[in-house]
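Q: Convert this sequence to structure tokens.
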Amino acid sequence: MKNPKGMPEIEEWDMIRDMIVLPNLVVMLEQQRQKMEYSTQLLKPLYQAATDALIYAVNRECSKLRMEMQRRKIKVWDERQEDDIIYVQYNCRGYQNEFGVTKEVIRTEMRLRLTKHIEDIAHKLQEG
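A:
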């Protein structure tokens, strides 16, 4: 059976999912940054700088994703939560529907992204 015209391809499903994951990751990092404000730890400036670098990297990734989705004529809006699932509405080249992701999948994806960005930052620190 053939997919309806405009229905997302496999990599586009990932992009729609990432439009849920990445903004939620930024929110989580910003919350961590705010918690650090009250810390008296000696390494507080380092932790804050690392968190700022992570926020910047995730925002940059999110910006690139938005541009690619715009190029492919995919729009995502209206995030809502029902039980343990976060839903968004999307329009992909005229095909409109709803997409849901469980919180567990979002947490796993956030962990994977965060690990990747931390490794990138650590690698840059080791180089120079």
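The CA atoms of residues 74 and 92 lie 4 Å apart.
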